[in-house]
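Reminder to self: tokens first, then the designed residues, so the page reads top to bottom the way the pipeline ran.
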């Protein structure tokens, strides 16, 4: 095995990579604070065994005196990011400590998830390599080509499907959960039009006990005019919500515009946030994201940058439980 990957461990559906200081799921790196990552590293290193609060404090904070609340906050963040609302992965042992209820394994040729890159085989022909890649890799690569092509491609007549949207939709997994196929096609077409790198997504039906002020965020939301002042296009896809207010999904940005704060091509990434008092909040690398639903059924999305300043964008519901089949104003 490549020495660079010897320390990579797999637990549940997650890939723990201490050398790079990241945890991945479905190829997406989870955004964890350093202390939370250190707590997880200690639990992974002692998987299946109880780790006392004292040992966790010593391993993560050393001789620095901190309250028990610091550890509790780290555990809460880990459960949020690992989508462990039912405490299936991280178990609490009352008054004693915590236990990672999973058995990490080293990645190998026979046991390795698709989000851990494998070395290319020199004996495999170039023609055979694309067939071995996950379909979402192919979709992502071809989407980039598609968006570049669109910059010079003529407009397609109203009512016709864009062939590149058809290609991306075919490559993406066919199961989009509770979103009907015709709505998925409209969302894919609009994403191509706005040069948004649409990720493969699946929206799960919420449980009956999920509060209405939480479930109303579930769905696909996209900007009409883009971020205020920059006009960079943006999309939010909320794929699941639970009774505790945990919401997961994807944030998708189009390519930078002349006044965009962050340069570069379009990109997307997974998020796990919390709905509280009618506001979905997510603490990401760039800053604090918040989404609130306005009186007219749109979302006002704000990003408070860590270095100062606030970005605002309004999102239209493309598909939600409350308004299934709805599309943005400019997509008729």
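Designed residues (332 positions):
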């Amino acid at each position: 095995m490549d020495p660079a990957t010897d320390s990579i461990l797999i637990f549940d559906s997650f890939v723990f990579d201490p050398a790079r200081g990241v945890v991945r799921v479905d190829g997406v790196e989870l955004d964890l604070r350093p202390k939370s990552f250190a707590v997880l590293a200690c639990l992974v290193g002692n998987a299946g065994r109880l780790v006392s609060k004292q040992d966790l404090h010593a391993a993560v904070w050393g001789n620095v005196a901190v309250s028990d609340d610091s550890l509790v906050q780290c555990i809460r963040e880990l459960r949020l990011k690992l989508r462990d609302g039912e405490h299936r992965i991280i178990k609490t042992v009352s008054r004693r400590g915590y236990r990672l209820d999973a058995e990490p394994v080293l990645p190998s040729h026979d046991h390795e998830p698709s989000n851990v890159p494998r070395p290319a085989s020199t004996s495999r022909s170039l023609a055979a390599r694309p067939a071995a890649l996950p379909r979402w890799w192919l979709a992502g690569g071809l989407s980039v080509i598609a968006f570049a092509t669109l910059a010079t491609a003529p407009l397609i007549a109203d009512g016709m499907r864009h062939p590149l949207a058809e290609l991306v939709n075919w490559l993406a997994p066919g199961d989009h959960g509770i979103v009907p196929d015709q709505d998925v096609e409209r969302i894919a077409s609009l994403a191509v039009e706005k040069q948004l790198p649409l990720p493969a997504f699946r929206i799960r039906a919420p449980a009956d006990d999920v509060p209405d002020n939480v479930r109303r965020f579930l769905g696909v939301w996209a900007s009409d005019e883009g971020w205020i002042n920059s006009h960079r296009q943006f999309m939010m896809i909320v794929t699941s919500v639970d009774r505790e207010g945990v919401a997961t999904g994807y944030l998708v940005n189009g390519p930078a515009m002349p006044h965009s704060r962050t340069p570069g091509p379009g990109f997307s990434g997974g998020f796990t946030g919390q709905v509280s008092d009618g506001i979905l909040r997510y603490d990401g690398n760039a800053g604090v994201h918040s989404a609130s639903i306005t009186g007219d059924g749109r979302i006002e999305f704000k990003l408070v940058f860590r270095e100062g300043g606030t970005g605002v964008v309004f999102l239209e519901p493309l598909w939600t439980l409350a308004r299934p089949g709805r599309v943005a104003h400019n997509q008729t």
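Residues 1-6, 109-137, 149-173, 325-332 have pLDDT under 50 and may be disordered.
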